Each structure stands twice: as C-alpha cells, then as structure tokens.
Amino acid sequence: MTTGITGTTATEIADSVRTLVERGDRVPGALLPPVRTLADTLGVNRNTVVAAYRQLALAGVVVSRGRAGTRIAARTRIAQEGYAADTVLRDIGTGNPDPRLIPDPTEALRRVGGRPVLYGEPVIDRALEAWARDWMTEALPEARDIRLTITGGASDAIDRLLSQTLARDDAVALEDPCFLSSLNIVRLGGYRAVPVPVDEEGMTVAGLRAALAAGVRAVVHTPRAQNPTGASLSAARATQLREVLAEHPYVLIIEDDHFSLLSTRPFHSLISPAHERWALIRSVSKFLGPDMGLAITAADPHTAERLALRLSPGTTWVSHLLQRLAHALLIDPAVRAQIDAAGAHYASRNAAFIARLADRGIVVPPSDGLNVWVTTDAAARPVAEGLMRRGWLARPGDEFELAGGGAASALRLTVHELDDADQERLADDVAAAVVAARAADARIDG
Q1: What is the pTM of this model?
Q2: Cβ–Cβ < 8 Å for 173, 220
Q3: Which of 15, 133, 218, 278 could be disulfide-bonded to 252 (CB atoms 3.0-4.6 Å)?
Q4: Cα torsion 434, 439, 442, 444: sign
Q5: Quick one: which of 368, 399, 403 has its CA closest to 174?
Q6: Per-residue confidence of the chain (446 residues) as pLDDT tens digits?
Q7: Dihedral (Cα; 254, 255, 259, 261), 10-degree rounding
Q8: End-to-end distance of the chain based on CA atoms, in angstroms?
Q9: CA-based angle 15:151:107, to the nearest 5?
Q10: CA gap 203, 218 in Å, rounded
Q11: Which residues form the signal peptide (predicted)?
C-alpha cells in the first residue's frame, strides 16, 4: 500500500505528513491510514505512529475522530487578541487598553538619543537594568541571585523560556481558561497542554497537583488579572500552591505579571526561595502601549543563562532606543501618576459594569485587568450571537478553553471604554441574550 508517508521515528513520520499537507497532496478531511496499517507499512512499532499522530494533533494538523479515524484538520482561524477586522458592530472583545490612557512618548523620545549601540554590547540597557532590578527585587525579596534580561514582550519571553526547557510533546501546565497567546505558543510549539482550572483565587490546588502528577515540566501562571477571568492569586492560595510545588523544585515556574503597575491587587507569587527554576515576566504593553514590545524577565541564574543564549545581538535583541524610551517614561513622575490613574479607571469601570449586571440578576465576581468574565449559565455562542443582533461583537469563552471546564458558558467583555449609557445598554442586552439562550437550552433539554 502506497501512502506517501515515510519515516522511522515519530518526528520523521509527522514531518512527512506535514510535507504532504503543505504540497496539497493531503487536503482537509482526508483520512490518514489506521495506526496498525501505517506501522506495518513503515515497519515501525505502533506506538511510534501513535506518537507521530499525537504530535500532528497537538500542532493542529490532524484531528482524531475515534473509530472514524484520524483526518487532516480544516484550516481554521487561530484566535488572536485585538480588534476584529471589517466589522460594523461595537467591538467589546478586543482586550485592548484604552489608547487615551497610554502616555504620550513624544517628550521622552527627545531625551533618549545618544551614542549608537554596537554588536557585542550588553543585551539590556544598564539604566533600565538598574531600575528593573529594584522593581523585581521588591516583588521577590527572598529570591537568590536574581538575573535580568529583556525580550520583545511577555509572549516572546514565554516562547523562549519554553523552547529552552521543553522538547516536542513535553507537558506544560496552563491555566484553564487560558490567555490566547500562551495557548497558541504551546500548540504551535508541539507541547502537550495540561489544563489547570482557575477560580476566583487563581490556579486550583487540586488542578496543579494533578498537572504535576501528569509530568509537566513547566507551569505558566498569571499572578494577577488573569486573562481572561480577571482572577488574582490570593495570599492563602499562593501558600498552598508553593507547598505543592516544593516537591517539584526543578519544574520551571513562569509567572506572567502582565498587569503589574496597573493592578489594584497585591502581588503574590508561586516562586519560593528554595525553588530552582523560575522566571518572573513583566511587560510594559498594558501601560506604555502594545507597540512598545518590551518585557523584563527576572530568573534564576540557570534559566536566565539559557534564555540569554537565545538573544543574539544583531538578530533578536530588543532595541536599546526602545529600552531607553521605556526607562525614561517609567522614571517620570507624571507618567507614573498617569499609569496609576489608568489602573484606577479600569478597576472602577469594570466594577461599575459588574454592578449593573448584578442589578439584572447576573452575578460576576470582582476582577482585575482589562476585561470582565461573564458566566452566563447558558451556551456562550448563542449569547454572543444574540449580542451581535443587538449591535455588539463579544468574545465567547470557548476560545480560551482547554478542557471543556465551563468556559463555553462565559463571555469575555472589554467594557472599560464604555460610558455609563453604553454600559447600561450593554447590560440590558447581555441579560436579554442570556434569557433567550437559556430558553433555547431548556427547549433542547425538554
């Protein structure tokens, strides 16, 4: 039997299938040979073919239909953050900061010139490094020998940290529901995502314990303003999770404190002084603007050294002009006051909308961040469709979901730019769409 598939290892077989798909020799929906058939054809162990198909599934190349076989996946859109293109609807699914609250860099730009930076010089600007060391040391006062580096944003840091720690098909613990960028990094890297449920206090203890038992080699965690739920780690939960992690000191902890200077919640960390492999990432995109493309990572010496090896001057370094600009803004008292005011604005506008939903019988826990996570007790897609008919473009929770744990009955809404009248109208429309969706669910169940 000629399949066109070649290889003797899982990676070779998976690469062969990828090549066939890229050449158009296997179209979406095409059935791949059964595991036993392909193993016999290639003269390999069946487990080798199983591993190859698993790699392809993790990368989104194939989908398994059980007894219906494994088929080439349809080319579907990968969910991304940001504004939706070409819509006439009011977009409340963006996840964006308010552009009016991002500091104007014009004056600071005039002050950040100076001598050119050449190949072979330090990757991180010395003035920014000194400021960032105080910032990170305040967050992790008991950490030993903090090393700093710089990347092109938090997602860039997470991608590099995982790639220097994991091999294809290695397991990584992700919050469920999960930040879209982290979810896509894991999928495209060919790693195996192990979901850890999130409640109002952060990752659950039972969920993290189960993930560690499943053999995860890294844990990606958001200590504050978890995206999409807005949850922040409580002091009690942080203590409980550190106790669980104490038995796994070489599992890499990656903390993405993306909301940092804007957050109204205290910072609690999973990183204990005795933990061996860890990294704390703080980007500037939420308060200085997404276009800044800059994040500072504090890490243990081993992790920092391996991360730095992937930052080669001249190819993947972060512009020193950009670093100087960030530093100039971060040490400016007027800018810091503006950042503080922005954080208070996001918190108050989100709280106002949550109160409006409560008036309409929809209870949403207090949250931090740019978004509000609205549980609907009804399928989210019909609710989102109901909002579309009322002029709103919302983001359903299943885009953030890993394990089918309930995110499909939630919406993530970005409401901080809405004035009081628009918030009132949206709250009315959410309530009406939820009632309609629940009624439709009841008819189906009946």
Answers
A1: 0.84
A2: yes
A3: 218
A4: negative
A5: 403
A6: 557 899 999 888 988 998 888 888 888 888 999 999 999 999 999 999 988 888 887 677 887 777 778 888 876 555 666 666 778 899 999 999 999 999 999 999 888 877 888 887 888 999 999 999 999 999 999 988 999 999 999 999 999 999 989 987 789 999 999 998 998 898 888 888 999 999 999 999 999 999 999 999 999 999 999 999 999 999 999 999 999 999 999 999 999 999 999 999 999 999 999 999 999 999 999 999 999 989 999 999 999 988 887 665 555 678 899 999 999 999 999 999 999 999 999 999 999 999 999 999 999 998 899 999 999 888 888 999 999 999 999 999 888 888 655 567 899 999 999 999 999 999 999 999 999 988 876 666 55
A7: -120
A8: 50
A9: 140
A10: 14
A11: none
How far, rounded to the nearest angstrom, does the alpha carbon of residue 429 sit from its chain's CA centroid? 29
Q: Please give the single-letter amino acid code of residue 377.
A: D
Which domains can be identified in the chain, with CATH numbers? 10-72 (1.10.10.10), 90-95+335-445 (3.90.1150.10), 118-329 (3.40.640.10)
Q: Tokens 């790639």 — which residue?
A: 163
Q: Residue 49 contacts by C-beta under 8 Å, 6 or more apart in sequence?
A: 10, 13, 35, 38, 39, 42
Tokens read off for 339: 């950042």
